[in-house]
Every structure is written in structure tokens, then in C-alpha cells.
Design goal:
single chain, 232 residues, mainly alpha, 77% helix
């Protein structure tokens, strides 16, 4: 077999990435096919937004994977590293935001044109992929930032990330901001956040949700990480 023939599978391997990347791709493709099947059957774009939400959930995983490869090459933490890390922190809430798409099982998005079990399986598949992308992405960043860790340093890194992610979920779901609004509409975004901070009692429901979701996502991450270790 000549070198050119050997180069083809090697290039495919680099494109498709690791076994985990291939499984993730297959899982996300399955979710998108469910939306496509629904669209064909109902001739409505009811849940097409789930694909966009999944793309946004993939962005932080793509960034953290890029940072991991930079670390493996021995690249330093220069301006490019800090810029990518900032955008990672900006987009990581999108991975966990998909949890709230479960709301759509009972609201006006559900047009009752498909069996409820189908919509449940479809939305759950997107939620599962979002959680996987989020957990894997946080784990990649944890390995980069904390190559040696204890439970204390792990939580000192993890909980602030999950707290900010929970705040981002609230801002996205209820205030209807997007990740890029910090660049395109920063003053309105900062004003609304400042109002929540200055008047916490008026926004008790907000902080209750942020606290609850931050604990939930921290526990999900810790459990998935420990289960992974237990299975190896």
C-alpha cells in the first residue's frame, strides 16, 4: 500500500477526532434526524430551533478541544489562549441551556402533530447531547487549568463555572439575551444584571433558580466524572 493510500485514513481520523468525538457526532446526528423526521411528517418548523441550540452548545466544546490541542503542543498562555478562554466562558452556558428546552413539551411550541413519546425522545436527545458537550468541555478546561487537583481546588474551579452557567441560562431563557449580546448590546445586558444584583429581594426567583441550577449542574458533572472513573 503506497503512502498516498495510507494518508487517506489518517486524514479521516484527524477530521473525525477521537472515538468520543465520533460518538458525539453520531448522537447529535440522531437528534437532528429526529427533527428532520418531524419536519417532514408535520410540514412545520416547530422544533427547528433545537438544532441551532445544539450548535451553540457545541461551540464551547470546540473551543475547549482547540485549547486542549494547544496545550498538548506546549503552546503558552498568550493573548490567543486568554481570548479563547473568555469566549469559552461566554458560550459554556449554552451547553446547559438546552435543559430548559424540556419546557417545550407542554407549551405552545408543541403542536400535538406527533406522538408525545416522539417529542419527548427528540427533546431528551438534545438535552443529553447538550449535557455531554457541557460536561466534556468543562472537563477539558479543568485538565488544562488544574493538571493537579484536590477536591477543594476542583470545587473552586467547578462551582464558579457552574454558577455563571446557571446565571447565563437564566439570562438566556427569561431575559432573552444571547451570548454575543455582551458585545452587541452590553449596556442593556449589564443594566439588567445590575438590577438583579442591586435589588436581590425583588429578584428572589432569579437567584433561587441560579442557586438550584448551579448545584444541579455541579452534581451532574461530579457524578458523571466519578462514574467515568468507576467504569475504567
Amino acid at each position: 500500500m503506497n503512502k498516498q493510500a495510507l494518508a487517506i485514513p489518517q486524514k479521516l481520523s484527524r477530521i473525525l477526532g477521537t472515538e468520543m468525538d465520533r460518538l458525539l457526532l453520531l448522537s447529535m446526528l440522531f437528534s437532528c434526524l429526529l427533527v428532520a423526521a418531524r419536519l417532514i411528517h408535520t410540514e412545520r418548523l416547530t422544533f427547528i430551533f433545537l438544532i441551532w441550540n445544539l450548535f451553540l452548545a457545541y461551540v464551547p466544546y470546540f473551543i475547549s478541544t482547540s485549547l486542549t490541542r494547544r496545550a498538548e503542543r506546549g503552546a503558552g498562555r498568550g493573548l490567543a489562549w486568554w481570548t479563547l478562554s473568555f469566549f469559552w466562558l461566554l458560550f459554556i452556558p449554552n451547553s446547559f441551556y438546552i435543559i430548559t428546552d424540556l419546557y417545550h413539551l407542554g407549551d405552545l411550541y408543541n403542536d400535538r402533530q406527533m406522538p408525545q413519546w416522539f417529542d419527548l425522545a427528540m427533546i431528551l436527545s438534545f438535552v443529553w447531547n447538550g449535557l455531554l458537550l457541557g460536561v466534556l468541555s468543562v472537563r477539558q478546561m479543568e485538565r488544562i487549568i488544574l493538571p493537579r487537583q484536590t477536591l477543594t481546588t476542583e470545587l473552586l474551579f467547578l462551582y464558579p463555572v457552574m454558577w455563571l452557567s446557571a446565571l447565563g441560562v437564566y439570562i438566556g431563557r427569561y431575559l432573552r439575551f444571547n451570548s454575543w449580546d455582551i458585545v452587541t448590546d452590553p449596556f442593556r445586558l449589564l443594566r439588567d444584571i445590575a438590577m438583579m444584583v442591586i435589588h436581590p429581594l425583588r429578584h428572589q426567583n432569579t437567584w433561587d433558580m441560579v442557586f438550584c441550577f448551579s448545584i444541579l449542574m455541579t452534581l451532574i458533572y461530579l457524578m458523571m466524572k466519578r462514574i467515568s472513573k468507576a467504569l475504567t
